[in-house]
Structures are given as C-alpha cells and as structure tokens.
Amino acid sequence: MTRTTTRTMTGTMTVTMTGTLLRLILAGLVSLLALPLAAQQMVALGSAQGYLALPSTPGKHPAVIVIQEWWGLNPWLKQQADTLAAQGYVALAPDLYHGKVAETAPQAMALTRAFNRTQGLDELNAAYAYLRGRKDVEADRIGALGWCFGGGLTWSLAAMQPGLRGVAIFYGPLPAVPERPAYIAKLRVPVLGSFGGADQSIPAAGVQQFTAALQSAGRSVDIKIYPGMPHAFAHVTTPEGKAAYADAWARTLRFLHQRLAD
C-alpha cells in the first residue's frame, strides 16, 4: 500500500493507493512520454529557408507546401505545419520574409510591400523541388495550402506547377482581372477555396464570378463562401467564426486526403 501526501490550499490531503494502481499510472505516463513526435527543423531552399515538419511514421508520405499569411513564418503557421505532419504529411513552410515576422498590421503591411514576388515564387518553386527530391516524399503526391497573402501565392504556384495534385486556398487574393484568361488557360491543378462572405478586401461577388469562369473552362474547383465571415476568419474567435473555420479546415483535410493520400 502506498500513501501520497499532497499539500493543498486548505491543508494536506493523503491519497492511498495500491502498488498495482501506482504502477499502472506510472506505466501510462511513460507510454505518453514515449509517443513519437513529428520532427521539426529548418532547411535550405535556395535563397530562403523553410520550416520542415515530419510525420512520426517511417516510409514515404505525401507532402504539403504551407504558405504563410502576411505575418510571416510565425508560431501559428508552424503549428499548421505540425498539424499536417501529425496527419501524415511532410509539411514544408518556406520563410518568405527571410527571418522577419510581423507583430502588428502596419509591420505586416510594410513586409508585404517590400516583398519581392518574383523571388518569393522562385522560393516556392524551390520548395516544390526540395520536396520532390526527398526520399520520404511521394514525388507525385504534393499539394499546397495558403492563407491570405499566402493564398494569393498559392493561386500563382498552382498555375506554375501543374505537377501539384491539389491546392487549398483560404481567402487568397484572386488573379488580376486582365490576367484571368491567361491564368485559367494555364491552370491544371484542382483547387479548393474558402472565402468570407463579408470579406471587404475580396468581395464575394468577385469570388463567384471567378469561380464561374474556372468552371466554364472545365477546371476542377470547389469554392465555398461562408456567410458573414470577414477576411482572415481563421482567427475569428466568436462561436460563428470558430464553426466556419472548423468546417473550412475539415473540408481542407478531406480534400488533401482525397488528392494526395488516396
């Protein structure tokens, strides 16, 4: 019989337990600590680096390029890569701001304005090539996922890399209207999109028009507009916002599984 005495706010509490129960509790804690965790590391991508999160299981895996919001490669974005790694994907998030991370909207705006788009797309293409060259990646099962600023870059990457199996875009700026016919002609990659119905920067009417044009051209596109949701609704903390993003994220995981894992 084992006695454990614990001091509390109101005095002491003695808990009596058998040796068998104690061994079971300790064994459970050891088992939790022994669970494999996804590996994380920074890797070189030409002129940039990238945050790489790996699944805990051996063998070859599908992969996802995870493209940052306008804030940069911040803890939230790394968490998204870790989440995808836990789902069985090799997840790579390129650091397109080269170590700079915004804490405020003015800082993010400044970084966005200073961003060299040509160089950034070169770095995203380097990320794609890097994943294709890894021995633990199924080279024909690579996709991309981006939010906001990164969603706009995901649109561009999809047209540049027809070998991608699918891309998921969260409220990413649409291609410019004069460029859309040429863009649609180049696009061959299936697209899943999630947009806010109350997004002032990307009006729902424009999303619907572009979706219709893609569909008329026979492109594989699944766009959902969430009524009442603003831009960046991944970070809306109201019950409605949480529910909308939970639905969008579930759709995204299903899409990635269908396109990359099946």
Report a brief summary of the structure:
With about 260 residues, this protein is of the alpha/beta class.
Care to describe what's here?
With 262 residues, the protein is α/β, with parallel strands linked by helices. It has 2 domains: 1-35; 38-261, Alpha/Beta hydrolase fold, catalytic domain (Rossmann fold, 3-Layer(aba) Sandwich), CATH 3.40.50.1820. Helix content is 42%, strand content 25%. It contains 8 helices and 10 strands. The protein has helices spanning 19-34, 75-86, 105-114, 117-133, 149-160, 180-186, 204-216, 239-261, and strands at residues 2-8, 11-17, 40-45, 48-53, 61-67, 90-94, 137-147, 166-170, 191-196, 221-226. Strands 3-4-6-5-7-8-9-10 form an 8-stranded mixed β-sheet, sandwiched between helices. Strands 1-2 form a two-stranded antiparallel ribbon. Residues 1-38 have low confidence and may be disordered.
Please state the average pLDDT score: 89
Largest sheet: 8 strands, mixed
Q: What level of helicity do the residues show?
A: 40-55%
Distance between the termini: 53 Å
Strand percentage, roughly? 25-35%
Topology readout:
Elements: E1 2-8, E2 11-17, H1 19-34, E3 40-45, E4 48-53, E5 61-67, H2 75-86, E6 90-94, H3 105-114, H4 117-133, E7 137-147, H5 149-160, E8 166-170, H6 180-186, E9 191-196, H7 204-216, E10 221-226, H8 239-261
Parallel strand pairs: 5-6, 5-7, 7-8, 8-9, 9-10
Antiparallel strand pairs: 1-2, 3-4, 4-6
